[in-house]
What we know:
It contains nine helices and eight strands.
Amino acid sequence: MTEKSLIDKKFSDIEYNLKTIREEIAEAALKSGRRPEDIDFMAVTKTVDEIYINHAISCGINLIGENKVQEMLRKKPSLNLDGVKKNLIGHLQSNKASQIVGQVDMIESVDSLKIAKEIGKQSVKKGIVSDVLIEVNIGREESKTGFLPEAAEENIYEISEIEGIKVCGLMTIPPICEKNAELCKFFENIYNMYVDIRAKKIDNVYMQILSMGMSSDYTEAILCGSNHVRIGSKIFGPRIY
Length: 241
Ligand SMILES: *Cc1c(COP(=O)(O)O)cnc(C)c1O
C-alpha cells in the first residue's frame, strides 16, 4: 500500500472505532440511568501521531489525554485544539510541574500530597487555579501510584486547603482482573468512595468527575458509575513504543 492509502485506511478505522465506542458508551449510560452526553469520552493519544489525533478531533473528539509532560508539550502546537480539552493522565514528577501547569485543562493524576503542593505553588505563581483529580490506587498495587483507598479521604481534606488547586473528582486504574465480578468490585468501591466524599461537601472539593474505564473495560466502568472514560488503543490501534 502507498503511504496515502495507509493513512486513509487508518482514518477510516478511527472513524469506525469512534462510532462503535460512542454506541457502547450510549448504551451503558442509558442502562445505568444516565444520558450518553453525561459521560466524558477521552481519546488517549500517547504514542499516536498528530495527524491521527487531528483526525479524531475532526470526528468530534473534544477531550484528549496524554500521560507524559514532554509528549504533550511537543505535540500541542500541531494539534487543532479549538474547543478541545487536554488533560494530563500520567504520573507527574515535581520537577516537571512548572512546565505543565497552565498548559493543560486538568491534571488527573495527583497521586501524592507532595505533587499537589507543587501544582498549587506553580499555579499561584502563574495566577491560575488548576483543576485536578485525585488518583486512587484502588487495588492497593505496589506497581501503581495513587493514594491508598483508606488514605484518600484524609488527603483530600489536606489537598482542599492548598491554594491554586481545585479538586474535581477521582481517577483510578484498577488491577487486571480475570473475572468481571472482581473488576466491578474495584469500580464499585471507588464509586462508593466518590459518593461518600461528595456527601461530605468539603470546602473547595467538587466531586463531579469519576475517571475510570479504558479500552478493555469502559462499559463495565460506566455501569459501575464512571462518568469519564479514557480510551486509547480501541480508537487508534495497538501502541507502538
Ligand atoms: C494509556 C492509558 C489509558 C488508555 O489505555 P487503553 O487501554 O489503550 O485504552 C487510560 N488511562 C491512562 C492513565 C493511560 O496511561
